[in-house]
Amino acid sequence: MPSRIQQLLEGRDNSIDYEELINKHSWIVEKDVNCILSPDSDGLLCGLLMSHLLNWKIKGFYDGKVMLLEKGLSVKDCVFLDMEIFRKDVRSFGHHMLLFNRNSKPTNWENFENCIQPNNLREYDGLHDFRLKYPLATIHMLLGILGHKFKIKIDEKAIAPLFFTDGTFNVLFSYPENVLNWLNFLKATEEDSPLKTIFLSEKHSVYNLMLEMDNFFRGRDEITVARERGDRLRISQKDGTPYNLEKHNSTYFISEEAVSRIKRFIQILSEFTGWKFKEENWLWESFDLFRFTKGDFKGNSKRVNSQNYAELLKKNPLSWAMTSGDNIEYTLEEPDMLP
User: Fold this and answer.
1) What does the angle CA 183 – CA 29 – CA 138 come to, to the nearest 5 degrees?
2) What is the mean pLDDT of residues 165-180?
């Protein structure tokens, strides 16, 4: 008898139309675009790749509680990488589960018109498809898209950070059926796809992969300090208080120590991937600071259901993610507004 996951996956063998996606979101292959990153390894990998390949400029960071953005710049002039923004006139690219029930889409769902999103592409929702949600990181889909347009060489050493980010190496062996289905969707078996080198290479024995991961962890751990892992830039505390930031007059900049640590991590990513770390494209100072309100259903003793989801969407959240079957984390655009 087929397992539950096999039953859920039955008939879901469609694949992405990269040409159609690029035609709709042509900005993803344009040069010299400003971007705002999530400050974790996935966001940093996306920024490193886009800076290396297309000379994108990293103008800020957003973690769901605070946003740093180059002073005077508007979010309409930027692309958010590794975070979906629920605003029609803002471009973004993320991979979280967002829709609760595809049979009753919110009336303002068109706010994601300028968002590249794997679960939305397949009309996956939390009510019916949570076990089938996109299992990889933003960087993997980004590589699939760019690989359709450009020749991208993936060094063997690149496997370590690309398996590390967002716990990909854990997901591969915990949910193999779903991962294989999504690799098929992303056309990873195609000869020119960078994803083929990452996921289908026969050169990587389990032992060699463990050695590469061990080397990567050692480099990351050398940067780690108390309360801060070396693979992310911490810009806020749990309660939303800005962190690692200093203010001069009305301008903010990231502390010298935090910049030094995260630059070391980006350099590690660069050494493993072969993607050049163009320091001139990365901004660490001259920021405006924006503070938002972060909440979640569990913390407010709310169940994940149609009524509570609809109430959340009526508040026009800036971003959110269904992080488990029984919780949604969200950000409201208050007290500050997007510039």
Assistant:
1) 40
2) 94
Query: Which residues make Cβ contacts (< 8 Å) with residue 178, sequence separation at least 6?
Result: 5, 9, 131, 132, 135
Q: How far is CA 21 from CA 2, 25, 31, 75, 86, in A?
A: 34, 6, 17, 22, 19
Strand partners, 225: 228
Mean of pLDDT values over 20-37? 99
> 260 to each of 190, 253, 280, 333, how far by Cα in Å?
39, 13, 15, 31
Write down the pLDDT at residue 325.
93
Helix axes 206-223, 256-273, angle to 10 degrees: 160
In angstroms, the CA 113 to CA 276 distance is 32
Output the six-digit token pair for 46.
């996306």
Residues 6+ apart with CB under 8 A from 179: 135, 136, 171, 172
In DSSP terms, 78 is beta-bridged to 34
Looking at residue 160, its pLDDT comes to 96
**Predicted TM-score (pTM) above 0.85:** yes
Strands 287-291 and 66-70: antiparallel
Cβ contact 289:244 at 8 Å: no
What is the full DSSP assignment across 214-236? HHHHHHHHHH-BTTB-TTS---B
Q: What span, in angstroms and rounded, lies between the C-alpha atoms of 334 and 339?
A: 12
What does the pLDDT look like over 44-96, one tens digit per residue?
Answer: 999 999 999 999 999 999 999 999 999 999 999 999 999 999 999 999 999 99
Q: CA distances (Å), 38 to each of 24, 54, 147, 210, in order?
A: 23, 19, 22, 27
Average pLDDT over residues 186-199: 95
Over 90: is that where the pLDDT of 6 sits? no
Amino acid identity for residue 279 in this structure = E
Q: What's the DSSP call for residue 128?
A: H
For the chain, which residues make up each domain, given as ranges?
Answer: 4-332
Query: Does the pLDDT of residue 13 top 90, yes or no?
Result: no
β-partners of residue 70 are: 287
Q: Note whether 173 and 206 are within 8 A (CB).
A: no
